Amino acid sequence: MDQTMNPNRPYIQRMLILLILSSLVRGASLQRTTSSAPRLVLSGWVPNACTLVVCGSSETRPKGEEGDQELESLKTQIRDLETELEGLKAAITKTQRVLLPPNGVMVGERIFKTDGSRGDYDAARETCSRLGGALAFPRNAAENSALQKIVTWHNRRAVLGINDMATEGRFENLNGDAIAYSNWARGEPNNLGNEDCVEMHEDGKWHDRGCTLEWLVICEF
Ligand code: MAN
Ligand code: CA
């Protein structure tokens, strides 16, 4: 409805926002007081994310003692939530350390994981996109050693999401950006017999290779 047709709209909007906020707060405390087992409900956790609560104008807030009590209760709830968040972070760290190997490793927010399949460059790319990820490539030394772990655990060289198909000697990632990090083996890339793909060996070093070998497929998510 057009605002010019309903002068109460800003008021109604504010009341709706307050209603939603209060039911959220009530829902959170209810969940906390009734739960007995540890909960691990996590949909789309974003590290370092902040929650911003926008309060209404001062005339909508209760005054005096009542307001102070409400503020204290909110502070307690925030502290409780912070404690809960710390617990969840610790649970995630432990989960990824215990459950991911030998198929996956997490580095920062990125997960490298193999489904155990093998394939050439095209098959590897298809597999990874079917799984909702992309063919993995390391952007720094930490990511390189994460991928190296998977290669070592599976004792099978992997193909990386890097190639120089477009311009010989210019290795780029799947977005077409020139790579900023590399870990070539000595003497590589040497384009021996026209090699446009990149293979990681068990020592973590890279070799350019033809694109039709059978590699371990490792995807990034
Ligand atoms: C081929 C070439 C070399 C590469 C080895 C890796 O011989 O691509 O450049 O180092 O394979 O096994
Ligand atoms: Ca080579």
List the helices and strands and how they pair.
Blueprint: H1 9-34, H2 64-99, E1 104-107, E2 110-119, H3 121-130, E3 134-135, H4 141-154, E4 158-163, E5 172-173, E6 197-200, E7 206-209, E8 215-220
Antiparallel strand pairs: 1-2, 2-8, 3-8, 4-5, 4-6, 6-7
Bound molecules: alpha-D-mannopyranose and calcium ion (CA).
Provide an overview of this structure.
This protein has two domains: 2-99; 104-220, Mannose-Binding Protein A, subunit A (Mannose-Binding Protein A, Chain A, Roll), CATH 3.10.100.10. Helix content is 39%, strand content 17%. It is built from four helices and eight strands. The protein has a four-stranded antiparallel sheet with strand order 1-2-8-3, with helices on both faces. The protein has a four-stranded antiparallel sheet with strand order 5-4-6-7. It is elongated and about 80 Å long. Residues 1-12 and 28-47 have low confidence and may be disordered. Residues 188-190, 192, 195, 207-209 line the site of calcium ion (CA). Alpha-D-mannopyranose binds at residues 188, 190, 192, 195, 207, 209.
Key attributes of the depicted protein:
4-stranded antiparallel sheet; alpha+beta; Mannose-Binding Protein A, Chain A; binds alpha-D-mannopyranose; disordered N terminus; binds calcium ion; 221 residues
Question: Would you kindly provide a brief summary of this structure?
Answer:
With 221 residues, the protein is of the alpha+beta class. The protein has helices spanning 9-34, 64-99, 121-130, 141-154, and strands spanning 104-107, 110-119, 134-135, 158-163, 172-173, 197-200, 206-209, 215-220.
